[in-house]
């Protein structure tokens, strides 16, 4: 039986594919290559297409014996989601509906979902726990929460079991050096900082220094992308053993401000990395730090790459070796 990974040519998805491949799993990958890269797929069978194409999904499910799905495929830019919410509802929510319909049609009853701590919005408690209020402050988080709720009702109606993994600020690169983070446009802090260190950007922008944090800049919980990939594999194993549907936070439990990330990157790279203060972006909560106690206890998840210096160091090694990302020209 195979694991289907949607968005498996993307940043986190490709690391999940690598983790599954290292464990000897049969893997089927769907990616429309809007943000993914063929070069990032280290194993499995890649189908290039869109989840909203029913005939395409019939081909994938018809040609493969799939027993579990890991669902990454989605648009994920907070700023863009606030400017173009329709795009996010159509791709994220409708795309997930199409996927769940085909899973139900073909009798596939297990799905691990790449969710986000953006579902919580401005948190009531730090660290955030799974039972805390969900009130997203941006369209991206709202669509992810809608996708979670859709899975809940598919479980109720069709006994389709899901594990939703809420995380954010994935960073770092694979230990092999073969895959890393390459988005266009790039919006994530760590690669933007490292592009500045490489001289590809004149400066790194800091969006707001008037938040209710120690240095006034937003605080986030950074997780190594390979630790995230391991959690998805463990979640598949849990469902295969008959585990019930569940939601888990994935985080290190330690927050770092934007200014702290830039300072650590300066230490790791030995570069100056100029920074410029900008106005706040819409929809950015001040602090997002997650408690992952439940994932550690129930999934047996034990992130081993949790020092920010090491996370940034692995990303820096990949960016130095691949200054143009997967574009070698």
TrEMBL record:
List the lineage, top down.
Bacteria, Bacillati, Bacillota, Bacilli, Bacillales
Query: Which organism does this sequence originate in?
Result: Paenibacillus lignilyticus
InterPro entries hit by this protein: Epimerase_deHydtase (IPR001509), NAD(P)-bd_dom_sf (IPR036291), UDP_G4E (IPR005886)
Q: Does the keyword Isomerase apply?
A: yes
Instruction: Specify the protein name.
Output: UDP-glucose 4-epimerase
Query: According to the lineage, what is the superkingdom?
Result: Bacteria
Q: Which gene encodes it?
A: galE
Which Gene Ontology terms cover its molecular function?
UDP-glucose 4-epimerase activity
| Catalysed reaction equations from the record | UDP-alpha-D-glucose = UDP-alpha-D-galactose
Its quaternary organisation is: Homodimer.
Its top-level enzyme class, in one word, is isomerase
Give the Enzyme Commission number.
5.1.3.2
């Amino acid at each position: 039986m195979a694991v289907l990974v949607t968005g498996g040519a993307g940043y986190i998805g490709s690391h999940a594919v690598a983790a599954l491949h290292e464990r000897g799993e049969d893997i089927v990958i769907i990616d429309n290559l809007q943000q993914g890269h063929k070069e990032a797929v280290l194993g499995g069978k890649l189908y290039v297409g869109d989840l909203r194409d029913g005939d395409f999904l019939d081909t994938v499910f018809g040609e493969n014996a799939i027993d579990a799905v890991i669902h990454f495929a989605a648009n994920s830019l907070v700023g863009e989601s606030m400017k173009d919410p329709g795009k996010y509802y159509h791709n994220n929510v409708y795309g997930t509906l199409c996927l769940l319909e085909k899973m139900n049609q073909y009798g596939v009853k297990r799905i691990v979902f790449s969710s986000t701590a953006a579902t919580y919005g401005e948190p009531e408690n730090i660290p955030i726990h799974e039972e805390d209020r969900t009130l997203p402050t941006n369209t991206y988080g709202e669509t992810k929460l809608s996708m979670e709720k859709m899975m809940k009702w598919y479980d109720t109606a069709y006994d389709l079991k899901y594990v939703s993994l809420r995380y954010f600020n994935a960073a770092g690169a694979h230990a092999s050096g073969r895959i890393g983070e390459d988005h266009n446009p790039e919006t994530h802090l760590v690669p933007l900082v490292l592009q500045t260190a490489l001289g590809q950007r004149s400066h790194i922008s800091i969006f707001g220094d008037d938040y209710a944090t120690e240095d006034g800049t937003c605080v986030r919980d950074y997780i190594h992308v390979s630790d995230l990939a391991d959690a998805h594999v463990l979640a598949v194993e849990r469902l295969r053993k008959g585990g019930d549907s569940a939601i888990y936070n994935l985080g290190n439990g330690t927050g770092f401000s934007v200014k702290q990330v830039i300072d650590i990157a300066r230490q790791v790279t030995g570069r100056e990395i100029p920074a410029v203060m900008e106005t706040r972006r819409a929809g950015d909560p001040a602090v997002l730090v997650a408690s992952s106690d439940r994932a550690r206890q129930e999934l047996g998840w034990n992130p081993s790459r949790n020092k920010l210096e090491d996370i940034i160091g692995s990303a820096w090694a990949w960016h130095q070796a691949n200054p143009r990302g997967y574009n070698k020209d």
